[in-house]
Amino acid sequence: MSIGVTAIDHVSVLITDLSRSRHFYRDLLGLAEIAKPKTFDFKVIWFDLGQQQLHLLLKPQPDNVSPRHFALRVANIQTAREHCRRVGLRIDETTPIPHCDRFFIHDPDLNRIEVIQWLEPYDPSQSGASVLDGIPE
Question: Which end of the chain is more exposed for a tag (fewer CB within 10 A), N or C?
């Protein structure tokens, strides 16, 4: 028995400046902004990501800097990497995953964003660890 999850619907992150964050996500990354629900009486920016959404919640303080992140899947990682460099974003390379290319960037509030292209679908039987973390052998 489960609750029947079929997908991640949206991700929310904290921001401290609407204009600066709108510029980063809309203008630098090229995400499509959509209207927030008319019932909302607070400041938030919503972006359409196809089958998911990204919600930016205006708060007085940024979130704690941490390894938490969300990942944006791209069709061509080299094009994405070149674009990020061209617009002046710092790129952090990271631990490789078999059959995948990825890197991290940060938004103006230091929210961590993974940019990822799967070169082949992830196959845990081929690319996964032989033991699950936290489960004794």
Answer: N
